[in-house]
Every structure is written in structure tokens, then in C-alpha cells.
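Quick one:
INPUT:
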């Protein structure tokens, strides 16, 4: 009897989550909101795949939500799933393989935190099994693979989203509004940068499909396109500065993916932006951006400029300069609860609440297309046209 009730509840939860996939179906959404409001147990059941470094950031976020229950943990190094289950007192089932997890305890959304190169195939398996997906970046290895995932999700009335969550910061919202209100005048140029001396724990960051663009530059690309609009074309130079590395999981390895990249983006109305990222940047204090006045993003118009203090994923304020006579002012210093690792929690809660989050999968796909185009531009010396777009402006 108990089981039967559980099944009935499970089906209606599943229906609810599938219907919310139809973004824009306002009438349906409002009835789902009332479903959510009248259903006492509206917890979203989540499975986390990949229990390495970043899971230490994700698990506390997911566990902090009253709307989310983490029911499964999976890692091909199964001892890691077991260890995280214990360390964070998750009380989940643990699995050594995605296939076993998909056949195991039922869940609604998979959170993909594995090596970058397998995100696409794991995300596809989850969608085929009827699960929503939040994926760490990149959501797939190529734009075509990512677009096929989105098409698959839509055909199954499911949702998929990709990191990063930089558009959620109050500083992103402030900068977007400042541009939209014309306070910088006519925007012309922008720059973003992010680098450090590279991850030391896993080889995948340096193997084919890895690299400093999908690991680091991705944040700046999301910020600059989020603020300035979709890019129409890309020109880039990428290189490998350090051809050999020693990493914890494989010892000495050959570096196959770019560890140094400069990317030029052409936006509408003549706006040009630039991203530089790499794994050979001496920047030991950069991660302590909280105590720094350094900026990582700058935007220039003919009436003003602004600099994002800290990183775009860990924001500390905006230095706004709009006067010929007054000095620049530090504004928008509140974090408003934003944390870079919040993406899966935020989209999970949006599923439960029947609301649309600001993070947008087409934006993640656009950034993926930029990364692929940058590799192609660097290899051929050509300017590469992009085809993807996303709903913009992102802050209404
Ligand atoms: N570490 C960070 O601070 C950080 C921050 C932001 C984003 N990210 C992103 O998170 C992802 C993971 O990074 P990480 O640093 O946690 O790496 P990691 O190597 O520490 O962890 C990855 C884990 O995934 C597991 N895994 C690999 N293939 C798997 C498969 N097929 N099925 C199940 N498990 C599998 C590995 O065994 C490992 O435990 C990457 O996309 C990375 O860019 C990491």
C-alpha cells in the first residue's frame, strides 16, 4: 500500500516536472504552480554523478535546499561516492556506474560533475531515461552534440541546463541594467580574463576536449555575451605553453588541449570583446579576490566604463566611472547570497516552483559554439561565423 502511494506520488511529480519543461506555456505553468503549492512533499529528487573536487561545493548547496533531496551519488571510482555520502551525511544510494544509477532509486534531475569529456554521453543517457539535467561545463564536447541534447530534451519535455551560473550574480544584473539604461553611452569594447597555474588533480583538464577555454574562459564568455549579446563571429589564437604536466591521477602527462587562449568576439552594433584565459598565469592572490580591488571584466562606452571587481564567478562589486570630474565609484558590493556553485540548486528549485531561471541553456550552447569556433579559428587563421543565439537581454 505504501509502495503504491509512493508510485502514484512519483508519477504526478514526474508529470509536473515534465510539464514545466514547456517554458512559456503560462496557463499550464500557473496550474503547475498551484500543484506545487498544494503538494506537501514537493522535493525534487536529485542524483549527482562525479564525486570529485567540485562535488564538495555542490553537495552543501543542494543539501541546503528544502526543495531538494539528494537520493543518489555515482562515481566510477565508487569509493568517492561512498566517501562523499559519509562526509556530507547525504543518506543517498551510491553507484559505480550511471547505468546502475538509472535503474536504481528513482530521481528527477541528474547533476553532472564528471570529467568534461564525458558530460555529453552521460547527459544523453539521463535524458533518454527521462531525467532533467544540470551539467557542469561544457554540457557536451561540441556544439552539435549539445544542440542534439537540447533537441532530445525538448522532444521528451525535459529540461537541461549548463554551467556556469555567472548571470545570477547581483553584479551581473547591475552591469546589464547599467548598459541597457545607456549609462555608459555607446558601448564599444570589453575584456575579460581568468587564469591560474592549472588544476593539479586530474589529467582530463589537459587532455583533448579539456583546456583553459572550457574550464576558465567559459566564465568570461558567458559574462561578456550575457552583457553584450550573442557573438556573430570569433577570431582566436590558442597555444600550448607547457607541453608536460604532472597530475595526481596519472602522473606525468602530455598536454593536448590549449593552456593559453586569446579570443575576440564580434557582437552586434560594432561591439568587440576579448577574453584571455590560461593555465600558466601566476595569480596566487587572485582567488582571494574578496580582499582585492582587482577587476577581471571591463566594459567601455563613450560616456562611461565599468570594471567588475573580483572574478565574474566570485563577484565583489563594480567600479563605475561615468563622470569627467568625479572619481570612479565602487558600487553594488552586496553578494545577495549568490555563490558560483548554486546553479543546480537554483534550476532545481525553479522546477519545483514552476518558474523560469535566468540561466538559459541556449546561452550555454552559444558559449560552447564560441569555444569550438575559437579552436577552429586558431587552427585555420580564419574568422569563424557563429549560428547560435540566445534570449537577450538576460536581465529584464
Ligand atoms: N574543481 C573545481 O573547483 C571546479 C569548479 C567549477 C567547475 N568544475 C567543473 O566540474 C567538473 C569536474 O571537475 P572536478 O574538479 O570535480 O574533477 P575531479 O577529477 O575532481 O572529479 C571528477 C570525478 O568524476 C568521476 N568520473 C569521471 N568519469 C565518470 C563517469 N563516466 N561516471 C561517473 N563518474 C565519473 C571521476 O572518477 C572523478 O571522481 C569539470 O567539468 C570542471 O570543469 C570544477
Amino acid at each position: 500500500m505504501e509502495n503504491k502511494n509512493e508510485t502514484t506520488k512519483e508519477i504526478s511529480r514526474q508529470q509536473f516536472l515534465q510539464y514545466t519543461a514547456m517554458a512559456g506555456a503560462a496557463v499550464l505553468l500557473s496550474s503547475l504552480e498551484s500543484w506545487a503549492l498544494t503538494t506537501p512533499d514537493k522535493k525534487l529528487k536529485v542524483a549527482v554523478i562525479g564525486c570529485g573536487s567540485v562535488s564538495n561545493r555542490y553537495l552543501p548547496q543542494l543539501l541546503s535546499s528544502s526543495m531538494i533531496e539528494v537520493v543518489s551519488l555515482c562515481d566510477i571510482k565508487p569509493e568517492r561516492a561512498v566517501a562523499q555520502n559519509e562526509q556530507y551525511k547525504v543518506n543517498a544510494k551510491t553507484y559505480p556506474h550511471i547505468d546502475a544509477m538509472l535503474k536504481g532509486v528513482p530521481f528527477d534531475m541528474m547533476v553532472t560533475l564528471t570529467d568534461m569529456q564525458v558530460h555529453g554521453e552521460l547527459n544523453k543517457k539521463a535524458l533518454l531515461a527521462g531525467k532533467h539535467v544540470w551539467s557542469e561545463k561544457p554540457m557536451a564536447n561540441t556544439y552539435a552534440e549539445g544542440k542534439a541534447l537540447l533537441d532530445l530534451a525538448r522532444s521528451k519535455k525535459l529540461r537541461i541546463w549548463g554551467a556556469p551560473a555567472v548571470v545570477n550574480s547581483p553584479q551581473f544584473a547591475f552591469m546589464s541594467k547599467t548598459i541597457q539604461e545607456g549609462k555608459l553611452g555607446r558601448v564599444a569594447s570589453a575584456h575579460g580574463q581568468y587564469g591560474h597555474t592549472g588544476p593539479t588533480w586530474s589529467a582530463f583538464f589537459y587532455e583533448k576536449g579539456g583546456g583553459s577555454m572550457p574550464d576558465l574562459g567559459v566564465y568570461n564568455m558567458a559574462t561578456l555575451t550575457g552583457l553584450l549579446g550573442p557573438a556573430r563571429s570569433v577570431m582566436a589564437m590558442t597555444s600550448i605553453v607547457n607541453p608536460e604536466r604532472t597530475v595526481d591521477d596519472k602522473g606525468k602527462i602530455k598536454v593536448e588541449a590549449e593552456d593559453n587562449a586569446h579570443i575576440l568576439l564580434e557582437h552586434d552594433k560594432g561591439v568587440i570583446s576579448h577574453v584571455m584565459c590560461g593555465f600558466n598565469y601566476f595569480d596566487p592572490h587572485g582567488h582571494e579576490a574578496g580582499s582585492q580591488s582587482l577587476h577581471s571584466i571591463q566594459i567601455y562606452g563613450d560616456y562611461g566604463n565599468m570594471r567588475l571587481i573580483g572574478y565574474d564567478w566570485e563577484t565583489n562589486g563594480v567600479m563605475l566611472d561615468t563622470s569627467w570630474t568625479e572619481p570612479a565609484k565602487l558600487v553594488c558590493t552586496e553578494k545577495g547570497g549568490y555563490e558560483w556553485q548554486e546553479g543546480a540548486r537554483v534550476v532545481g528549485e525553479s522546477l519545483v516552483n514552476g518558474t523560469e531561471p535566468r540561466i538559459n541553456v541556449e546561452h550555454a550552447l552559444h558559449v560552447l559554439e564560441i569555444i569550438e569556433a575559437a579552436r577552429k579559428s586558431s587552427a585555420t587563421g580564419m574568422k569563424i561565423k557563429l549560428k547560435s543565439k540566445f534570449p537577450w537581454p538576460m536581465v529584464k
